[in-house]
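Handout, section B. The chain below has 379 residues.
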Amino acid sequence: MDTSRALSSRIRNDLERKLVILTGPRQAGKTTLARGLMAEFPRAQYLNWDVPADRKLILDHAWSPRAGLVVFDEIHKMRDWKSFLKGAWDGRGEGQAMLVTGSARMETFRQGGESLAGRYFAWRLHPFSLRELVEANGMAPQDALDRLLERGGFPEPCLAQNARDADRWRAQYATDLIREDVLEFSRVQEINSLKLLLELLRERVGTPIKLSNLAQMLQISPTTATRYLEILEALYVVFRVTPWHRDISRAILKEAKVYFFDTGMVWGDADTRLENAVAAMLLRHVHYRQDAEGKDIGLHIIRDKEGHEVDFVLSEGDRLTDLIEVKHAETTPSAYLHRLAENFPQARVVQIVAEPRQEAQRGRVEITAAAPWLAELAA
């Protein structure tokens, strides 16, 4: 299977003009993508802050001025990394390109220093999407969906020879994540509580999360539970999908739903895993349009006080553009989906079904197979 990534050509173009910052989950393929780009530049250099010899070169500004591309990995761990990057970019050799990669969201690191405004483009690399598996590896959409539901989208388990190797990778991934990355944000004595929160979230995918309840179960304060969740978000382990709050006549509940970047982390049935996979691919679609086009696109849920809900909605600015319901086999839309379809006549309305008996149009609701629909997302 092809391991090239869909973002490579877009990032290559941006490197001609700006510093590029590429973030995303640990082992999503950032280093592989960076090394692929290095092959296109003369005398490219790769410097990892976690490697002592590389760290000294970084601190001494001793990389080659003749390098066509310099890649800085995990540079956000450096004190005043923004000031460093500003100086490195402004003082670089003529025509030298720079790529910064990291496994945490750069905006969560609030060290002081100069602003990078106007100097960079930012990209977020997600695990494989269905579209990427179809286009890069020639898989049929349904086969790609089956693979993602079974293995998740991270390159190593997704492309593994068998499910056993994928399971071994995931067990080690979770251990390394807690032992190494989480310690950047928290104290050693907090690790057990964070691990327990992660386990609680794995079995609550697709349900509104009330952090005060989780805090009580963990015997920590709601403020601490919120901070722990923010750590997991910052490390691209989970993401929250928040309620849509504009132009809804009935008050909606405030609780968000929490999903995993790695569908393989989910503890749940086939419906839950499908919902998580769709959430992850919709988020990738949203991030791609934000990063590539500068669009004000958002991913949300709708849920009212009576518990009626639509799984996902997409917005652009203050306008709701898509209503998306996810089902494993059910092809009859809910009355609530029909009602919202009438309330938002400008929105596209679809019920995507993993195993539909037949596709159909029910009022304004399109009933369609999940695999080909997901293959048409932006990324």
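Note. The two ends are 18 Å apart (CA to CA). Compare this with the example in section A.
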